[in-house]
Each structure stands twice: as structure tokens, then as C-alpha cells.
Specification:
- The chain has ten helices and no strands.
- The protein is mainly alpha-helical.
- The chain has one domain (3-197).
- Helix 1 (3-17) packs parallel to helix 3 (45-54) and helix 8 runs antiparallel to helix 10.
- The termini are far apart.
Length: 198
């Protein structure tokens, strides 16, 4: 990871330490995946990586460390707080490449909860961001469990929940790389769920 992204991550990490129980592994995964996908899909990493690092810093201002993943109030609140925190961090490291755009996208990155899918159509980077942010929920059995706990579902119920999620219709995967990831993740989760039932 480039030095500038390390600086951004170093300043963002204390916020994530106060956020959701899975925020640090989520952001570490997002950093890894955004770097990888940027190379494969020839995306603007100067836009996508900072968004990937900073998008959930606003959860640091919420009291619940595992909020309901479909709560409009929680999503709206963390986007408002995240916009301010992200701007402060980017200005502190003198990151001026698309600063306004990055901060704007952080302020609307979960607008799907409000029925607004326009941010993900404005540029391929935001479409891929939305894909990766969604895919984190299926990236491990542990994440199925954590997110299931937030809405009162078992991992098996979460598997069905994700297979029927509105994203698959309203915000289809933006590239072949993320489509493949979803299939691989869900095949693996299905195996793990079967093993846990034995």
C-alpha cells in the first residue's frame, strides 16, 4: 500500500477502534480488495482506495457496536459523521486528489438504504465500491454470524437473506471480478453452513 494510504489508515484506525465490532477487519479487507480490483479493472485507485479506507469512520460516533445492518437511522447518521471525519483526515495528510468527490461519496455511500442508487451509477469506482462493501458481508462465516446477530438471523437464514438481497436486482455487480467473488463466497458459505448443522 502506498505511503499516503498508510497515513490515511493510521489516522482512521482510532475511529474504527471505537466503531463496530468488525470495522477493523472490514476496512483491512476493503483496502486489500480495492487495491487488487483497481489493478484488474483499471480503476482510479486515488479515488477508490481512500473511499474504501474512510467510508465507515462515522460508526465511531454511534453507541451500538453491532447496529442493524438495514437500519436507515444508523446508515444516515454514520454517513453524516463520516463525511466530516473523512474531510478532517484527508486535509490533515494533504490529500487533495478528488477530495470533494471522495468526501461526497462517503456522505452518500449507503444511500441504497434510502432507495437511491444514483451514487453507484455515477462512476465505475462507486459501483465497484458498493460491490465490495456488500461482498464483505459474505466474505466469511463469521461475518454471516455477526450480521445475522444484528437482525436476529442465523447464518443459514443470512445465506438466504443475501441470496435474495435487493442489491442483486437494483445494483447488479459492476464487473466480472465482483460477480465471481459473490459466487465463490456464497458457495463456500453454503458448505460451511452444512458443516455447522452436522
Amino acid at each position: 500500500m502506498d505511503n499516503i494510504y498508510n497515513k490515511i489508515w493510521k489516522l482512521a484506525r482510532p475511529y474504527y477502534e471505537k466503531g463496530r465490532i468488525y470495522d477493523i477487519p472490514h476496512i483491512e479487507w476493503m483496502i486489500q480488495q480495492t487495491e487488487r480490483i483497481c489493478k484488474i479493472e483499471s480503476l482510479d485507485e486515488k479515488l477508490l482506495i481512500p473511499i474504501g479506507i474512510l467510508h465507515d469512520v462515522g460508526y465511531s460516533e454511534q453507541k451500538d457496536n453491532n447496529p442493524n445492518i438495514k437500519s436507515q437511522d444508523s446508515k444516515k447518521a454514520h454517513m453524516v459523521a463520516g463525511e466530516k471525519i473523512a474531510r478532517k483526515i484527508l486535509e490533515k495528510v494533504n490529500y487533495h486528489h478528488n477530495l470533494q468527490k471522495i468526501v461526497h461519496y462517503i456522505s452518500v455511500h449507503d444511500n441504497w438504504i434510502l432507495g437511491d442508487n444514483t451514487p453507484y451509477k455515477e462512476c465505475k469506482e462507486m459501483g465497484v465500491f458498493n460491490d465490495l462493501d456488500f461482498l464483505w458481508g459474505q466474505s466469511s462465516y463469521e461475518m454471516l454470524r455477526y450480521q445475522g446477530e444484528s437482525i436476529g438471523k442465523t447464518p443459514a437464514e443470512m445465506y438466504v437473506f443475501w441470496m435474495k438481497d435487493e442489491k442483486l436486482i437494483n445494483r447488479p455487480f459492476s464487473c466480472e471480478s465482483t460477480r465471481k467473488m459473490f459466487k465463490e463466497f456464497m458457495d463456500k458459505r453454503k458448505e460451511e453452513i452444512s458443516l455447522h448443522k452436522l
